[in-house]
Design a protein that fits this description.
Blueprint: E1 3-8, H1 14-23, E2 27-33, H2 37-47, E3 51-52, H3 56-61, E4 67-70, H4 77-86, E5 90-93, H5 101-114, E6 118-120, H6 128-139, E7 145-153, H7 156-168, H8 172-176, H9 185-192, E8 199-208, E9 227-236, E10 241-247, E11 259-265, E12 268-272, E13 277-281, E14 285-287, H10 314-317, H11 344-357, H12 365-383, E15 389-390
Parallel strand pairs: 1-2, 1-4, 2-3, 4-5, 5-6, 7-10
Antiparallel strand pairs: 7-11, 8-9, 8-15, 9-10, 11-12, 12-13, 13-14
């Protein structure tokens, strides 16, 4: 069984996924559309896609398109996802799910009403540290897990300026001020992707930016945001806590590892930094860095990455780590570039398998809400000076 897919947005990120979707044996045809038609035409030519559409509306109206994959700017995802679902299309969405609780609720209601497949492509679901922690939790190796930490430490100087200029045009500074806690899933998702719980309350603190370059300037920002670094402490259901850091001004090599995680249990703990990862218990320490280190699948100098900022190329060139189980993946992926520490192959296969088998994907709408909504509430907490706020929950996904 196969289906056809329309890609929405032909920017720096979508090209990597276009190649994987086109190679997957469960996908028949791949189309693309972009607000800048020349970008769509270039991506279609570079990746040998089936064709282009002049607009998203035309793609949604086309009977030959069964599903759409949204790779547009982060604050646009919610409305575009809803358009897709209401047009009868299955939807894959880049992160975040949405930037408002109402949009998230509407997506969940629409998925429940239509029975269509929705998946958020959260890369940390398959971050090697998350995969390893998930396995260890299932084994009971931590005993009682009571605290975890997830950081998304990505400095603006390391690729984000170029990315915002590329996507934002002359008005790029107004959107480069995007609030860090509204992009929470690379930190929250890595924690909750291993620890089967959800956040129930949060207190957060934001740090006002001092660079003075017109980014994170409330007079310029379309989000009324002047915070570049933020920290949130969450309470979880069943007892325990996790902390996340969303840093955009930080002296840290985010091109090496931008998401990193720690898990603490009563009998064991696990900690990850930029180049090292450790498993620890009450008797000693084991270096597990090799187990979590992806092997390169292609060179950062690969000409297919010419449209990706040099500082971002490492995220698109990693293969898989030893902790990844590639047995379920199509063999067509074996020699194709992977990305974000080996996650891209698994995310594409999750969505394709879910659509073709009518099963729930790993990061379905209910899971995506639990990865996204905590950051939205945390952002409001920071704006209220750290007030502790409750986090709504939409429950577990219904069984299909």
């Amino acid at each position: 069984m196969t289906f056809s897919l329309g890609i929405v947005g032909a920017g720096q990120f979508s090209g990597q996924f276009a190649r994987l979707f086109r190679a997957h044996p469960g996908v028949r045809d791949v189309y693309v559309t972009d607000l800048l038609p020349e970008r769509a035409e270039r991506l279609a030519a570079d990746e040998g896609l089936t064709g282009t559409f002049p607009a998203y509306e035309a793609m949604l109206a086309a009977a030959e398109v069964d599903a759409v994959a949204v790779f547009t700017q982060r604050w646009t995802h919610g409305p575009l996802v809803l358009q897709g679902l209401r047009a009868g299309k299955h939807v894959y969405s880049a992160v975040p799910m949405a930037i408002g609780a109402d949009e998230i609720a509407e997506i969940i209601d629409t998925v429940a009403a239509t029975g269509l497949t929705y998946m958020m492509g959260e890369t940390s679901q398959y971050n090697p540290a998350t995969v390893h922690a998930r396995n260890k939790i299932a084994e009971g190796a931590f005993e009682r897990l009571f605290h975890a930490e997830g950081d998304y430490v990505h400095d603006m100087d390391l690729g984000f300026y170029d990315a915002y200029r590329y996507s934002g045009g002359a008005d790029w500074k107004s959107t480069a001020s995007y609030p860090p806690l509204l992009y929470p899933t690379h930190a929250v998702g890595g924690v909750l992707g291993a620890w089967r719980t959800h956040a129930v309350s949060v207190s957060a603190i934001g740090v006002v930016d001092e660079r003075g370059d017109g980014v994170f300037d409330r007079s310029v920002s379309r989000f009324d945001n002047d915070v570049s670094n933020a920290t949130a402490l969450f309470e979880v259901a069943g007892g325990g806590s996790f902390r996340t850091n969303e840093f955009r001004r930080v002296g840290y090599p985010s091109h090496i590892r931008e998401s990193r995680f720690r898990f603490f249990g009563t009998e064991a703990s696990m900690e990850q930094l930029a180049t090292v990862a450790l498993w620890q218990d009450k008797t000693g320490v084991e270096d597990i860095s090799e187990l979590l280190e992806p092997r390169p699948a292609t060179s950062p100098d690969d000409p297919r990455l010419q449209h990706v900022a040099p500082e971002l190329r490492a995220a698109f060139t990693s293969g898989s780590a030893p902790v990844h189980d590639r047995a379920r993946l199509p063999r067509a992926f074996d020699l194709l570039p992977n990305g974000h520490e080996g996650s891209h192959h698994f995310l594409v296969d999750d969505f394709v398998t879910a659509v073709n088998s009518r099963t729930l994907p790993s990061v379905n709408a209910w899971v995506a809400a639990r990865y996204t909504l905590p950051g939205i509430v945390a952002h409001e907490s920071a704006r209220q000076g750290g007030a502790r706020l409750r986090i709504p929950d939409f429950g577990d996904a219904p069984q299909r």
